[in-house]
Amino acid sequence: MTQSTWKTIRAGEQQIAVTKNLRIPMRDGITLVADAYRAVDEPDTVTPRPALVALSPYGKELQALALTMPPQRRPSPMWDGCIEAGDIARVVANDYVHVIGDLRGSGGSEGEHIGNYNAGGVPLGQDAYDFIEWVAAQPWCDGNVGMIGISYFGSMQVLAAAERPPSLKAIFVSGGHYDFYETTYHGGIMWLMPRAAREGRGGDSGWAFTDRVKSRMLETHSAEEIEKLVTERLQDPDVQAWPNLVHTLYYPTNHEAWFDIVMNDVDGDWYEERNPVNLAENIDIPVWLQIDQGRGWTMDGTIECFDRIPAANKKLTIGPYPPMQSRPFIEEHDKMFRWYDKWLKGIDNGIDTEPAVSVFVEGTRKYAEGDAFPPKPVEHRELFLRPRGTLSFEPEAMGVEHAAPDGFFQAPLTVTDKVEILSWSTAVFEESAELMGTGAFHLFAAIDQDDTNWIMRLWNERPGGPRQLLTTAYLKASMRELDPEHSTPGSPVHPLTRKVPVEPGVIEEYVLRVYPFAATILPGHKIVAELSCNEPLFDAHNALLPPDAFHVPVGRPVTHKIYRDAAHPSRLVLPFTIMQ
């Protein structure tokens, strides 16, 4: 048993006992390091308390800024996406021990980090198991352990719970990432934000790695294979037009994690290895999943994870827009402490009898409650794209000879700053309409290249006021194949496992998955659908995100024709709740 040396520090008016650089052995001989924070006890006494464990590769010292830095919201330039382990002072004040550890290959911990949610060939969930059981055995812990932290810290909670460590009694996951492919490619379109993982860009400090992080691609392929694969990847015009991607491919040991992501642009075994969604079926402890609206791919993964968890006591909360929580992370602590007071301290506070699912509905700004998502019955209704930028519940009667297609030409962003956008809007709503769930965007289109991006953004436009983003949809044209077994009307699913080039000039039906959302369109408001192949780099929505939280633009000039006539019923399929 390791003897901890504790010292007392001050956080405002609060006194906190801290012990630094605890050395925690893993089953293969590697040692991880951690810091622990607790309330100050009487001299020569140690009061055992439940512990909340936080694990990530972001560095435990960075998390300690929660004691000195006021929480920052975007667009504050001091916002740092990696300070995610929670409010240390508040954890201590609620009589828990806050234990913050560095994952294998990061910070002060030993070992190597290679690739995805594995490290040095060891599943990170396995390390979490050993870490939790060590914490539970310490004299300052009463044997009851939960976990804390958002984003990467949240994903670690799912990986840990799937290993079933006996002392882990419950988890509370906020803003977790699940399907790793959907974390890095949205509908097959590469998202730039994950490049911050290794290097620290766009408001993130990055992983606390030194020379102990390695590319899984470089570890598992010969030099000849890597040269061939890199050459093939460089043929993609989207890659060619983005200097950071070219640099990454030529100098992979400078960008190990990002190199692996860039090289794996379709879904498959590399992403499925230790996929938290697949592992969720092993979880048998109480779980509360929380996510905010505004970044639909994360909502999609959170809901799928919730659906797959077989545990009897599970909850799902979907909170309001905007999408970025404070750093240091402080939100959702009230819910978290109620959850852990019940499952770690045995306090009968009734939280286990409350509705399992709670969803914030934009517009009315009220919560809808139920047992599943969506928590209310819905019917999918069609809104058809019509001439003159109109969205209508009535289909187009004219043929293509009269309802001529809409179109736009997008030049590469290497030669223009302008992102071309098509827009269709409904008439103003005379009565309130509530929408809740997933949707589909059926797009009949022809392009003059073999690929493009389809990006749809759905807005609630209010009279005389700012508009609000409701949800988004993304699809790489070459990855348009549908999964017929799992797709349903209003909820298309794409395998995203291969690219099938588009035949230029041929009209294709593309079915984009509209990510989950919940909103009420109030009287006088409109629904507006915008279509583009690139994202505007700056607007009211993107200002809330880190500077590079957008998608790799199309690197070739493309002409797009959007057909919306009687033979080509381009349409939105949206989930309207059924009034009861």
TrEMBL record:
Residue ranges occupied by any Xaa-Pro dipeptidyl-peptidase C-terminal domain in the UniProt entry: 337-573
GO molecular function: hydrolase activity
One Pfam family in the UniProt entry: PepX_C
Keyword terms of this UniProt record: Hydrolase
InterPro entries: AB_hydrolase_fold, CocE/Ser_esterase, Galactose-bd-like_sf, Xaa-Pro-like_dom, Xaa-Pro_dipept_C, Xaa-Pro_dipeptidyl-ppase/CocE
Lineage: superkingdom: Bacteria
Cross-referenced SMART domains: PepX_C
Phylogenetic placement of the source organism: Bacteria, Bacillati, Actinomycetota, Actinomycetes, Mycobacteriales
Protein name: CocE/NonD family hydrolase
